[in-house]
Design goal:
By secondary structure, the protein is of the alpha/beta class. It has helices at residues 2-8, 48-58, 75-82, 113-119, 128-138, 162-169, 191-199, 216-222, 237-246, 263-268, 299-309, 313-324, 331-345; strands at residues 14-18, 31-34, 64-67, 87-91, 123-125, 145-147, 176-181, 205-210, 229-233, 249-253, 273-276, 292-295, 353-355. 34% of the residues lie in helices and 16% in strands. The chain is globular, with a radius of gyration of 20 Å.
Length: 356
Amino acid sequence: MLTLARALARDAEVTVVFRRVLEQRSDEPFAALALESVGGAENAAPSRRTLGRFVEQRAEAFGVVLEGSWPMSGKLTAWCDQRGVPAIPVLDRLPSSSWLAPLHPAAAWFGSSGRYLRRAPVIVAGSRELRDTIAERWRVPGERIAVIAPAVDRALFAPRDQGAARRLLGVSPEDRVLVVAGGLDRGPQLGPLMEALARAGDPRLRLHVLGHGERRRALERQTTRGGAITFHGPVSDERLAAWIGAADLCVSVGDEGDPAYSVQECLSAGRPVVLAGVADARRLPVVSQVSGFVIEHDLLAWIRFLQRDCPSRNTLRMMGMAAAVTPIPPVEDVAAAYLEAIHRITSRRRPFMAVG
């Protein structure tokens, strides 16, 4: 999202709306707004009341609203449309009730996404496979769905020397390093991977967990093998790129709501990715046994993978070379595609654009 916002900021005044803002940065070319304070409720998605208040108080200040993937995709677009504000739902995953606690107020009506998406004049899907699924599942005409790949800063997330990255981060050159960014908030958690790590029987195996989420403290308390699992919290983009560069293998767990990195960024940086418990791996550009792996996200699957199916570090390095040539469009092309989608729903220029 932030890479896209930076690219769009070259042609428009951009505001990114987060559920929460953990750190304000003054060096970005866009503004940042928070729907909730850091000390607010720990639900995995903002409440309907919170979003309604945002639409009532702020939406009309924007020329276009890009609504990111979340359990109620399309709802914000519908609310904006009622107020004459053009909006486009952007889906890089399917809305899923697994993002929500069972008793969360949104859980009862996340399934209404189809009704809202059918009303949207334009929808952005992150892949052709996702476009086809949206068209079939919710009967949305295919011509209204624009396929636009995620934006990746390929200058930052580029192949780098693993040894240099490990020296920068203080990681042993002999360690077998897995890096995961996510699993700390909504969706599947890291418990099966963490337990499998303790049972794998490899004293050089290390897991480095990046990002922030309400589950972090509980997962840290579950850590059973001293030094094998390290939680680093939120990291800057530059530090994130260094951690990916230091990894032997990146991990993507489930259809998470807000992972700290994207699969595309790992591939761009020349690191293979293991997709664990992903509902539809076809929508992601990982080629099994070539640039990564696809496994179930449960204890036995992880033990089997770590003990038997995960290849040597040298083979992983070769897979990283294959990952690095994955076709990923330049961020300028992605931004241009978004601007084209925006011009499909409005021909007038307004002073602000929101990405959220």
